[in-house]
Amino acid sequence: xxxxxxxxxxxxxxxxxxxPVDTRLGALMSYWRAKRQGxxxxxxxxxxxxxxxxxxxxxxxxxxxxxxxxxxxxxAVRLSGTALDDLFGGxxxxxxxxxxxxxxxxxxxxxALGLVVEHRRPMRFFGRLEFPSEPGNKIMIEALAxxxxxxxxxxxxxxxxxxxxxxxxxxxxxxxxRPAAD
Length: 182
Description:
The structure is a single chain. By secondary structure, the chain is α+β, with helices and mostly antiparallel strands. Helices cover 24% and strands 28% of the residues. It is built from 5 helices and 7 strands, in the order ββαββαααβββα. It has a 7-stranded antiparallel sheet, sandwiched between helices. The radius of gyration is 16 Å and the shape is globular. Pfam families: PAS_5.
């Protein structure tokens, strides 16, 4: 069994198996898989139809992958749903991760999302994080990052969804059942 890796010092975990617990994320994963054209191909942005994702729209995020001189690409928010705008305390469309998150968190997010780009495969995240909308209160979340490619196969965008964990699902996350770290 593959164990989730913690992105220390955060209470955020990366699960390369990418098997969501939350049914909303499972539905998005199924949608993404259905849009693939063959076993090696990834869906393109054109394959993703917002009208087919109505129930997901408030918690969706799309990130543009931007090449850098560094090994790890940068990411800019192309769009984010209203629930995410509320959670993050604003609309960050067009802004890079470094403009949204503190430097250490931005670096960790870039590194983790860079693996989605490099390996051309989905990744699941879960954890207990503090958001601007709830200062001093850590919220338990689960998220999915799904690569989208250009017709030439290069990953140029990530489709993601971030959901707050439902109380009934928390026992499925043993890492989060331990007392919260300060």
